[in-house]
Every structure is written in structure tokens, then in C-alpha cells.
Amino acid sequence: MPGLVGKRGKKLSRIGKNPIPVPEGVKVEIQGSRIWVQGPRGKLTRELRPGIKLSLQEGKVVVERESDRRVHKSLHGLSRTLIANMVEGVTQGYKKVLEIVGIGYKAEISGNVLNLSLGFSHPILFIPPEGVKIELEGPTKLVVSGIDKELVGLVASHIRSFRPPDSYKGKGIRYQDEKVRKKAGKAAV
Fold first, then answer.
1. Burial grade of 172 (CB within 10 A; 0-12, 13-18, 19 or more)
2. CATH of region 15-91, choose from 3.90.930.12, 2.30.29.50, 2.40.70.10, 1.20.1730.10
3. How does pLDDT run along the chain (189 residues), one tens digit per residue?
4. Which of 67, 97, 147, 150 could serve as 89's disulfide partner, Cβ 3.0–4.6 Å?
5. CATH superfamily of 94-175
């Protein structure tokens, strides 16, 4: 089909043209370039970049771009995906599971404060931002959940950064499905 291949021979995505269905129980409000999405789990708002137009047609959010300039083309699919993530977040929510690997490494929650023992001389205290909930499924398994996909990923990444997985023994904090590639070390040489 003509128009599906870009200048460099790559296939182009047309995700921005797909309308976003609004499920029952979700309320969407649009004012200019700002959108509010409210559902059973909470309310999210986002300001979109200039050049992107939003409209609500027949229970679907339609994202359109102002022109065919490169900037507007790149923002078109991004804006559509961000809004789809908002709709999914207020209906189902998002979660990331972190595992703590290492002898003596553990996590505890007291009130709203996450207390991590990661082999340092001091415990690491972390208070999650508003809108993010941290739960424990055992002393070495953390579940970070919330309605904002970006914020959940950011908090999970921040917690992981306290002790990233070691490349020799694999000790540290990792995502549940993360594969840690281990190095051989001096003894194998």
C-alpha cells in the first residue's frame, strides 16, 4: 500500500488515527488541549502539546494533528497512546512487581513508609508519592500500583535504583520478569 513506508524504508505506524473507545462508567472532558478522564479508580488530567486536537465523537476520543509536519506526526501517536493509558488506568490500573534478591535483603512497610534493608550500613526509607500504593507480598516481593502508568513506572524504577542487580551474583532489586545476565568472574578465566 502506498504511504505505509517512510523515507528510510521503515514501516510507519498509524496508531494515532485509531479512536480511543471510552468504556461505560468513564467520563471524559476536553477543554482545548487539556483532557480529564474520570473512572471508578480515580481521576487523571493531562495537558497535550500544541498542534494536537482532541474531540469526543460517539463515545470515542478522536486525536487529530494540525498538519503533516514531522513534529505533529511524532506527537500524534504519542498523544493517542497517553490518552489510552489514562482510560485504562482509571478502569483497571497499573502495577509493577519488584523482587529483592540477596541474603539479608528485605523490605518492610510501616504506615506509608517503605523501609528497605539492602546490605548498606543504614536502612533506606522511601515515601511513595500520592497516587502510588506499595504493598508487600512477602519480605522480598514488592507490588507498586496506581492509576498513572508513567508514575507507577517511575516509582518502580526509583526503588530499583537503590540497589540494581549485581552482574556477578545477581543480588539486588529487579523487576519480576527481568533476566539478569551474569558475568563469569575471575575464577572462570
1. buried
2. 3.90.930.12
3. 455 666 666 666 688 889 999 999 999 999 988 999 999 999 999 999 888 999 999 989 999 988 888 888 888 999 999 999 999 999 999 999 999 999 999 999 999 999 999 999 999 999 999 999 999 998 999 999 999 999 999 999 999 999 999 988 889 999 998 888 888 878 765
4. 147
5. Ribosomal protein L6 (3.90.930.12)
